[in-house]
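Expect sequence, tokenised fold; for instance:
***
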Amino acid sequence: MTDSSTNPLRIALSADHAGYELKTVLIEWLKESGHDILDLGTNSTASVDYPDFGYRLATALENGDAPFGIAICGSGIGIAIAANRNPHVRCAQVAEPVSAALARRHNDANAIALGARLIGVDMAKACVTAFLTTDFEGGRHTHRVDKLNHPPAEETA
């Protein structure tokens, strides 16, 4: 596991209007922990379209602006779908820390999506902590993760 408290990370965050307040809390908390934050908006609770912010996060990850990302919308689902349209992104929608850790350990996720209307601040922080402090296990998972970008020509059982 990575000790993110002694190894500050650059983390990109994006949110739609429903996720704005949770994004703001997480940014402050992550900065206090010494992390470098790339805030991709939105910057208010005025209504915006979640795909725009999922795409922003995906572009930042693809361009290498940050190795990890956190996307937030009302449910976490829509913004995750948008981010995952980019083949350089493996964004898992999570609602508890076990899934956040498994997304890193088994799927080499480089982003998580949180549902601001579904989880509270403490649970969001627990998910972020699990995500940022868990390393990809590799091994038997490596070829499976590789298939995410290179699907087989024929489906095999």
User: Anything to note?
Assistant: Strands lie at 10-15, 36-39, 68-73, 91-93, 111-115.
